[in-house]
Amino acid sequence: MRVLSGIQPTGKIHWGNYFGAIRQFINLQSTPDQAYYFVANLHALTTIRDKAVLEENTLGVVLDFLALGLDPNKATLFVQSEVPEVSQLCWLLLTVTPMGLLERCHAYKEKKANGLTADAGLFNYPILMAADIIIYDSDLVPVGEDQLQHIEVARDVAARFNHLFGETFVLPKGYVLDNSAKVPGTDGQKMSKSYNNTIQVFEEQKQLRKKIMRIQTDSRPMEEPKNPDECPLFQLYQLFGDEQGIAELREIYAKGGFGYGMVKGLVADAAEKVFGPARERRAEWASKPKEVREILDAGAANARKKAKEVLLRAQENCGIFPPK
Ligand code: ADP
Ligand code: TRP
After folding, report:
1. Could you give all domains of the chain from N- to C-terminal order, each with its CATH number?
2. What's the CA-to-centroid distance between 317 and ligand 1, angstroms?
3. Does 132 sit in the ligand 2 pocket, CB within 6 Å?
4. Ligand with minimal distance to 142 CA
């Protein structure tokens, strides 16, 4: 079974991205028959129009993956644009994609509903994503719920191509990541870049503490017993998963007589324990650009081997002469 997923390099990763996606990707890296993870820089080009920012973010996500435990000996890690076959397959798929299918896709629909003009790149974005998936004969695509619609599009388009030209592509399935506990941001609503309420995974220690101390809390008196499951601070603490600590904190909430400052201190300590060593590993990888480049070259070479095979199958089946 092949697992594949991609992350757009649109900014610094936050706790929501880690717990909601990246940590789970890394847990799936030992899937027999290989996991493929890539940085979707071609997709990011629909929103980032600054060369230096796009380049820096792209390598940044690679460092994030490596620092957080992605093992290039287990999973294939690469940059989307370094597999040019994806863009070639994208065209073949576009020729069998009904306009209506793309008109219903949410990124484009929302932009239009807000009165903004969309580029053709944004409109066709789901088909580039379909090519990303189909070109490796991927079976399973772990994603956040917001991306499920795009996996359905990939499945529809692959099935349509198969119907028109004969059995060519594997039909992929989406697998919704467990983000049942949506990670709350510093204002209590879902953590998201768009709400400006994020805590970044690789925040410097001092800055990290400062941010945690600024998390909004209610103004009920200290003595009052409180329900931990309604408290974003408790939810954040839980993410770091020290079972005994969680049980003890639960009791403290139920009894009352504690200050939120104390809980913030616990969250900060727990975060430092997990992300402190990752921060050091990231700095280490950042100081070895040659090795990182080698990992990406090997990842792209491995991915391309499969991509070439699937692209050729598609070209032959629909009557397109492949380059000699
Ligand atoms: P943002 O909302 O900050 O723009 P993205 O949409 O780029 O984040 O997130 C990429 C992935 O990270 C999502 O598909 C989702 O799986 C995960 N994710 C983002 N924010 C959260 C959150 N607050 N809680 C859980 N998962 C999240
Ligand atoms: N569109 C995805 C996102 O914004 C990123 C992505 C691009 C992707 N290609 C993919 C995810 C292929 C899974 C499979 O999160």
Report:
1. 2-181+288-318 (3.40.50.620), 202-283 (1.10.240.10)
2. 38
3. yes
4. 2
Q: Which residues contact 247 (CB under 8 A, 6 or more apart)?
A: none
Q: Is 193 a catalytic residue?
A: yes
* Active-site residue identified among 12, 112, 182, 190: 190
Q: Of 13, 20, 4, nearest to 178 (Cα)?
A: 20
Q: Which residue's structure tokens are 């949506």? A: 182
Other beta carbons less than 10 A from residue 313's beta carbon? 16
Query: What is the H or E stretch that residue 261 is in?
Result: helix 260-286
The predicted pLDDT at position 194 comes to: 87
Taking each helix axis as running N to C, give the angle between helix 289-318 and helix 51-67, from 0 to 180 degrees, rounded to the nearest 10. Answer: 100
* Ligand 2 centroid, distance to 232 Cα (angstroms): 28
Q: Does residue 177's CB lie within 6 angstroms of at least one atom of ligand 2? A: no
pLDDT, tens digit, 9 for 90 and up, residues 157-178: 999 999 999 999 999 999 988 7
Helix (H, G, I), strand (E, B) or coil at 76: strand
Active site residue 190: yes
In angstroms, the CA 34 to CA 75 distance is 6
pLDDT of the residue at 180 = 56
